[in-house]
Amino acid sequence: MRGRRGPRPRQGDVLTRRLLVTGGWGFLGKHVRALLAREELTVIAPRRDELDVTREFPDLGAFDVLIHLAGRTFVPDSWQRPGLFWQVNAGGTINALDACRRHGAAMVLVSAYGYGNPDSLPIPEETVLRPTNPYAFSKVAAEEACRYYAKDLGVPAVILRPFNIYGPGQDERFLVPSVLRQALAPDVAAVELADCAPRRDYVHIDDVARAVVTAALREEKAGVFNIGSGRSHSVGEVARLILDAAGVSKPIVDRKQTRPNEIMDTVADISAAARELDWRPRTSLEAGLAALVADARPQAV
């Protein structure tokens, strides 16, 4: 993929010349590929039926950086199939690291929130990881694999820890698209939520994609970085912001169904990303939700 903008690779600069993207056709992957299309790079983005991350990677040609986005993501599903989440998220990362080792390439791993219930807020990267669900457990294991390969097998790795991602194209089972659907559906009388209380740090998909591309094009391939907004909002507040943006008056019904090992509040300390990646979020939650409402309205009519 080639475009007019972005850094031109220098002669002999293997760090920004050829990138392999796993999961490039998923929610985050599509946004990452759109940003990479603006750079003067060769991007390999095999489809799911062309690359099974749970097996040894086929020969896809030489590459210099592997952006690893492929994985299972929906927390409720992980309680039903923890082994599958481990196989895809942890085992798939090991296979990706093996591919990097064979090609002398670096890894950018998109991990997840694994801090559990924090002792204080905001949460810096040095906080002890205490995963509270099988999904987070599988992602923490993937991080451990990156650390081992970097230390003992010579595979440089950058780890990004996004907090709660939202944005266009997200699976309708997640909170924001679920609330959006209920808010705009004329035959739905109320917005029903399992639990209004938990607070999360919501970060827009465009900001996350920008962090991924920044890490991939950065010369130094090392470090762990939180990717969030630095603010938290409750589930109920998110629903109210969507209703306000839509100009819709509907009651919010709280079923008070607390999930197993629920985390009540998360706020990312994003100072390391700001300092070392020169990355900061650009889209506020209010603006991001308003844009989603505007985009969804034609389909809702």
Word description of this protein:
The chain is an alpha/beta fold and 301 residues long. It has a single domain (14-233, 260-300), classed as NAD(P)-binding Rossmann-like Domain (Rossmann fold, 3-Layer(aba) Sandwich). It is 38% helix and 14% strand. The protein is built from nine helices and twelve strands. The chain has a six-stranded parallel beta sheet, with helices on both faces. Strand 4 (106-110), helix 4 and strand 5 (157-162) form a beta-alpha-beta unit. Helix 5 runs parallel beside helix 7 (235-246). The longest helix has 22 residues, at 82-103. The protein is globular. The model is unreliable at 1-15 (pLDDT under 50). Keywords: Lyase. This is GDP-mannose 4,6-dehydratase.
SS strand fraction: 5-15%
Give the uncertain stretches in residue-range form. 1-15
Q: Mind telling me which CATH architecture this is? A: 3-Layer(aba) Sandwich
Give me the CATH fold name.
Rossmann fold
Q: What's the number of structural domains?
A: 1
Shape: globular
Distance between the termini: 37 Å
Identify the CATH class: Alpha Beta
Q: What does the main sheet amount to? A: 6 strands, parallel
CATH superfamily, by name, is NAD(P)-binding Rossmann-like Domain
Number of strand segments: 12
Order of helices and strands: EHEEHHEHEEHEEEHEEHEHH
Strand order in space, largest sheet? 2-1-3-4-5-10
Please, what is the average pLDDT? Answer: 92
The level of helicity is 25-40%
What's the total helix number?
Answer: 9
User: Any idea what the radius of gyration is?
Assistant: 19 Å
Secondary structure class reads alpha/beta
InterPro entries: Epimerase_deHydtase, NAD(P)-bd_dom_sf
Enzyme class: lyase
EC number: 4.2.1.47
Family: Belongs to the NAD(P)-dependent epimerase/dehydratase family.
